[in-house]
Amino acid sequence: MPRRITDLDQLTEHADVLLCDVWGVIHNGVNPFLLSVEALKAARARGQTVILITNSPRPAEGVIRQFDTIGVDPDCWDDIVTSGDVTRQLVKEAPRAIHFLGPERDFSLVDGLDIDLVEPDAADAVLCTGLLNDEVETPEDYRTLLAGFQARGLPLICANPDRVVERGDRLVPCAGALADLYVELGGETRIAGKPHAPIYIEAMARARALRGNVDQARTLAIGDGVTTDIRGALDNGFDAVFIARGIHARQYLDGRSTDEARLNAFLESAGVAPAYWMEWLA
Which domain of life does the UniProt lineage start with (predicted)? Predict the structure, then answer.
């Protein structure tokens, strides 16, 4: 069973580097979690290096702009690695004619890349950053379109492996849910974000650039998603801190508190064993 902690500073002696998730840990897409921001600022003040590692399909500059908009203090991180950053390499390696499936706000993902964005019928590959309108649509609305791509053998590059994300007090579907449907239909997906290795390799490269030599055994990954943050950390050799009050909270909340027995049963059913858990990052 994971050990419950109440303060991030309890782990100061265990970690030099923190790989921290963003959505669900630092903010909910609308408001920053001020205790989490202050916890990361305090960690940096103690000499720890904070690399934010997020499945946002936009390059880091887009995440920083969102931070500015909703009020996340820039002093809470040293560097940011996004799924969009590492997905650009997959796009470079893909066929040139690509259909972009996602909202216009994500177009910065392909800025400067030598590709042709084409209509679905002319595509040799698909780049998916999300649903066009995740406020009202569901993955099922895309079944026919994706089945057509699968029938032609097109690879689908998923720029955001998250299935859902918090937006305010709601959960909205992400590109990962479309990738799951594509696999269900028999299609090929290509993914570089969490839980896959490329985003962790890049995050550790950023940490080494800041600190010099980094001992992976003294690196902790923090997140609220079991299939992305926690599974990715464990599969890539990192201890993990699970944040309970994220996207899975409905599975084990009892009123306003976490039922630890239900939490442990949930983690066991998901096949993950983080070293620690916290209600909130604080």
Answer: Bacteria
CA distance 88 to 45: 33
Angle CA(253)–CA(164)–CA(171) in degrees, nearest 5?
Answer: 55
The domain covering 86-191 belongs, at the CATH homologous superfamily level, to: HAD superfamily/HAD-like (3.40.50.1000)
Q: pTM of the prediction?
A: 0.96
Amino acid at 42: A
Beta bridge partners of 125: 98
Which two structure tokens, joined as six digits, stand for 151? 């029938």
Place domain 3-84+195-278 in its CATH homologous superfamily.
HAD superfamily/HAD-like (3.40.50.1000)
State how far the alpha carbon of 124 is from the alpha carbons of 119, 149, 188, 213, 243, in Å.
10, 9, 13, 42, 39
Per-residue pLDDT tens digits for 136-169:
999 999 999 999 999 999 999 999 999 999 899 8
Q: For residue 86, what are the CA distances in angstroms to 66, 162, 198?
A: 19, 15, 7
